[in-house]
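## Example record

The block below lists the input lines for one assembly entry, exactly as stored, with component labels intact.
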Amino acid sequence: MTTLTEDTPRSSDNRAIGDEMIGFIVMAVLLAIVPLTGIYPFFVMQGLCFALMACAFNLLVGYGGLLSFGHAMFLGTAGYCSAHALKVWGLPPELGIVVGVIAAAGLGIVTGVVAIRRQGIYFAMITLALSQLLYFIYLQAPFTHGEDGIQGIPQGKMFGFLDLSDPITLYYVIMFGFLFGFLVIYRVINSPFGEVLKSIRENEQRAISLGYKTDHYKFMAYVLSGTLAGLAGSLKVFVAQNASLTDVHWTMSGEIVLMTLVGGLGTVFGPVVGAFVIIAMQQYLAGFGQWVTVIQGAIFVVCVLTFRRGVIGEIAHYFKRSL
Amino acid sequence: MSISLPALSAQLLVGLINGSFYALLSLGLAVIFGMLNIINFAHGAVYMMGAFCAYFLLNIFGIGYWPALIIAPIVVGIFGMVMERTMLKWLTGLDHLYGLLLTFGLALIIQGIFQNYFGSSGLPYAIPSELQGGMNLGFMFLPIYRGWVIVCSLVVCIATWYAIERTRLGAYLRAATENPTLVRAFGINVPRMITLTYGLGVGLAALAGVLSAPINQVRPLMGADLIIVVFAVVVIGGMGSIMGSIITGFSLGIIEGLTKYFYPEASNTVVFVFMVLVLLVKPAGLTGRAT
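Predicted structure tokens for the full assembly:
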């Protein structure tokens, strides 16, 4: 039985870290010069929010081996809570983000207690069912405004001086938010905690026999992943200026899975690439109605049958590098 | 609080009907999981295909409800077997989760194509003339078609249980679930058995689709939300036992019906809440083995 992801052979850990560091610097520089290139910043901002979301998801599935099919619940919950805090309570942006992230962390703790009780296929079904439960709650709760969602969210001034209604300022704030989340995830997967997580993915029974309380590790990975997904959801509120039911729906969870799968499960940069590929595809095919769904389904099928390492995973495998 | 018996029985009836769909679908999922070790995410999509198949048979070929009840599950079952032979087969030996991802993709493709041609609104499918009207049972009015759906799915569920637990073919099936290599060594064609099993599971879902067509209308997304509830049912019941899936399916339908009467706001969520409670109290599910 092979697991969902396989580690690219690391000739030495130093070299792997070196590759990933270079990759990170290249990515940061590319992102920093985006406003100079004339690329539509809204598109890149949207891509960054989903990229962070996919990275957070990848932390759980790629390193912990836990496939969550309900990760949209964190995106949507943080989005709703941030949006409510900004619009109704009139909080400044930084506190709005904090509210959203705390809400996502709380949701992670509550759902985590239930979800990690079963593994593998059951974990996927449980998380999907939990997110559907939340979907119906948000559909009926008054503060989410049901089908309309929360609209016209004020962007405000972050820390009192960063005017987020200016696209360039907003872009850099989102970029820093993304890079912060990315580095947290990167630090986690290269920490002793991350190593234990990988050992659980490879062989949980053995990890237990070595004395690790694997449930604790899985629970922490789940909460952490949900919290960072919440950060992505809160940031997205400033870009889209609305929070709606689409962010909590199971189709969104499916898209997050797809992004990570296309980029490469268990790779550091894969989810980022996958997120941009899928967002770009949706933009270009926006006029084709439901064919977008069909194409997404076809990508799923092709990826699973022929391309299980994903774009970055295949590149890393070919060059025997760690990316 | 005064209880109105006719209203309560009406909701219980709706609950029993939903329960019979849950039972048929979770039964198929359990049978497929036993043999193929995958969770068939496309189960909702094939349920929808069953309903559409009946609709096409009636509107294009003029073939009515009764033949459709046989033809649609066979046609959709063959479609399923083709999927198994051309795609799912290649996932043998890989992580279970790849099966989930692949069938999720297939569900998106199937539902997307139907949505393109039929939009999201429902197409009507008339109740066959023999089953129109209703009976007055004294305490409630029972539409005959609804009674038929419950009886029919109960019979099919029990027949499936009998075939798997009590016949020679079922014994081969159970043996192959336990140890496919050993069963192959006895000269039984296990790959063919796997394909037929997938076809059977898919056919059961399509049958549920045909049964539901006159009640719920024929819609491209009719199975999309249903399958998530069925997943919760499967988590509650566990997939270890066939009878367990059947009983859990019907019971949750009844619980949902009761909720619709006593606290309608929670009728969408009650199955999921129940799932959470079961996981907290009995993590392995009510009838299942721990995984």
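The first strand of chain A starts at residue 157 and ends at 158. Chain A has a mean pLDDT of 90.
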